[in-house]
Amino acid sequence: MATGQGHVKVEDVTKIYDPEGANVLAVEDCSFEIKPGEFLAIVGPSGCGKTTLLNMIAGFDHVEPKGKIYVDGELLAAPDKKLQPGPDRVVVFQQGALFPWKTVLENVIFGPRNTGKYQGSELKEKAEELLAFAGMKEFMNDFPSRMSSGMQRRVEIIRALINEPTILLLDEPFRALDAITKAVMHRFLLDTFDYTHKTIMFITHDLEESIYLSDRVAVMTTRPGKFKTWIDVKIPRPRETRVKASPEFIRLKEEVIEAVHEEAIKAFQRGEREMA
Amino acid sequence: MTKLMTKLRIAVLFALPVIGFVLLWEIFSRSGAIDSKLFPPPTVVAMAFAELIKSGEIFRDTGYSVGRAIIGFAIGAGLGVFVGTLTGAVKVVRNAFLPLIQVLRPIPSISLVPLAIVWFGLGEVSKIFLVTWSVFFPVWLNTFLGVTRVDPVYVWAASSLGASKRASLLKVILPASLPLIMGGMRVGVALAYMNLVAAEMAGAYVGLGFRLEYGHMVFRIDQMLVAIVMIGILGALSDRGFTGVVETLLPWSQTKKR
């Protein structure tokens, strides 16, 4: 698939897991667009269907019973159109999925080796260039288990980027990191975004992170997941840490917190009902 | 210097109990406290060993035993990985073969010794068959478990990175299963020796098991002990060798987090 602009359109998607059995309505009537080169963050309470949406775009989950997903105007997924995962929509997972039996370099070139995007010395040059950008070139012959979690995350993002995806799908990639490593990773992702201008869909629980990184924050309701609010983040790029202290950032944070808090309370109350 | 000292210390600590055991055995056997016909002292065993070296028989026996073990292991492990991968990854194959394998697996391979001799005679085939049989099951089981229980996130990552089903199986699922597969092979190595010796004792013209059984028939307990010591040494050496191979092949599974 050719590298496109990265325009994603999700139209009226409803997802039911196990319709014959448990019949879990995960996502209901979701419609949204991600503009080419936009950084969209999606936040919401646990189990609200954020990851389900991402998985449907990635091709891990089938769109059913209704809805359509378009990328760059092309219909990719629908109930009668099963989408296969592919390097045009690479996912970075929350639990980390570097192959431990491959070195950093071997991990990075795994995608192009499959697709033939780059070959031979060109591939190695490209990989080294990206690894150098991530400050990881000197570790390229090491195994991932010898590296810190922050380093592993950087390699994983590079492994995704080398495929020049139309859209980068990040599923809570920094969830398990400590605060300091997280701050370093935020810097890295902001730099990466400024450098590549890839369309990014970023799922997170961390509200401050969602504002600091993105162009737009979508707040989802508790299950079944719908969109509750969209908040534009008009803080100019490149962004420095100090923007977190700006009045605009604090105002946005209050707005997001309020929206998410309502949903969290609902989710909590429903949890209590379900327990009772 | 200190490194050499540490190594020397480890060697001494390892050798001392062995030397002590051999010495005690010699003393007890010579003192008449135990019957030296039934428990010949180590010096007598060593002379039997020298005798077998001189006649070349010990080399022939060891060579044959090791050869049978290696050939049987290679066939059994190869089949185990192949069938394990197919039954793990292909549903049709799994449904077709799983019941059969589960029925055959609990049969102790030692119980097949007489059958193998009837079927394949006293030659090489019956020994290799028994070794193959005993190695196949642990390797099959671990490969099957490895392939079916691989962390799905690796498979998703592979498909997201454009890997075909075939590439995903060969480049992701199998390597991810390697630690388990190697564990199965290590069990296989131990079982291979056990069954080989049993098979050689039951009927053979050459081999360490044959030497043991022959010593029994002609009441050469010293020769029996030579065979037993050789079997022990080979078993320990192959386990050590196998661990070495695993460390070389799977450096990533040994590395520690920084």
Word description of this protein:
The complex is a heterodimer of chains A (276) and B (258). In chain A, a hairpin with a 2-residue loop joins strand 4 and strand 5 (74-77). In chain A, helix 5 runs parallel beside helix 6 and helix 7 crosses helix 8. Chain A has 8 helices and 10 strands. The radius of gyration of chain A is 19 Å and the shape is globular. With 276 residues, chain A is of the alpha/beta class. Chain B has one domain (41-246): MetI-like fold (Orthogonal Bundle). The longest helix of chain B is centred in the C-terminal third of the chain and has 38 residues, at 165-202. Chain B starts with a helix and ends with a helix. The model of chain B has no long low-confidence stretch (mean pLDDT 91). The interface between A and B is medium-sized, with 30 and 25 residues.
Task: Set down the secondary structure blueprint.
The complex is a heterodimer of chains A (276) and B (258).
Chain A: E1 8-17, E2 24-34, E3 39-43, H1 50-58, E4 65-71, E5 74-77, E6 91-92, H2 104-108, H3 110-115, H4 120-133, H5 149-161, E7 167-171, H6 179-196, E8 199-203, H7 207-213, E9 216-220, E10 227-232, H8 247-275
Chain B: H1 2-31, H2 42-55, H3 57-89, H4 91-104, H5 113-120, H6 124-148, H7 152-160, H8 165-202, H9 208-217, H10 221-249, H11 251-254
Give the uncertain stretches of chain A in residue-range form: none
Radius of gyration of chain A, taken over Cα atoms and rounded to an integer in Å: 19 Å
Query: For the report, how would you describe the main beta sheet of chain B?
Result: none
Number of helices, counting only DSSP H or I runs of 4 residues or more of chain A:
8
**Strand percentage of chain A, roughly?**
15-25%
The total domain count of chain B is 1
